């Protein structure tokens, strides 16, 4: 059953739980953007309301590409417009989603980009962590700006480009092949590049390190289906 098309609005748990200090880590090497989308979709599949996902990486590392794929996967809509909210700070998405149990529920995703926020006062005026925790799954780009406001229970996602000759141990490699030669898909990617992100203007693979802190992230990371 396909979800109702999500709405984007612009703005200026169950299981065994671990202590906030306990972490669980996995690493994935994604050969291309399609592999990144597959990883994001797998995480979307185990996500739920109240989750906080903090994205770490340099400009152009792939944070926005990951966030876009995650949002599209949550709402089962590969064409959903999901630009990075660099100037707006926050974008909200809402739609009806059919869960694995066959029950349709309303989901929200709040996507933050904190790059332009410089101090605690700005963050407090623009970011309502309490509301997001109660209503949505929250994605934070440049989450370092949260400082002491960073939730102790969260998933940290560290992303960087991989050098061609780089050897990385203890990593799961994902290679989903080249993108299909489809004019609509190419047009969509061109539009995304212009509006969203400098990510994937190169062909380097990306390394994603997932670090689950507290809650039941250990179980959820181990259950990823990619």
Automatic annotation (TrEMBL):
Pfam families in UniProt: TsaE
Primary residence: cytoplasm
Residue segments, region Disordered: 179-198
Gene3D superfamilies linked to this entry: P-loop containing nucleotide triphosphate hydrolases (3.40.50.300)
Similarity field: Belongs to the TsaE family.
This protein's UniProt keywords: ATP-binding, Cytoplasm, Magnesium, Metal-binding, Nucleotide-binding, tRNA processing
Protein known as: tRNA threonylcarbamoyladenosine biosynthesis protein TsaE
GO biological process: tRNA threonylcarbamoyladenosine modification
Cell compartment(s), UniProt: Cytoplasm
PANTHER family: TRNA THREONYLCARBAMOYLADENOSINE BIOSYNTHESIS PROTEIN TSAE (PTHR33540:SF2)
InterPro entries (UniProt xref): P-loop_NTPase (IPR027417), T6A_TsaE (IPR003442)
GO MF annotation list: ATP binding; metal ion binding
GO cellular component: cytoplasm
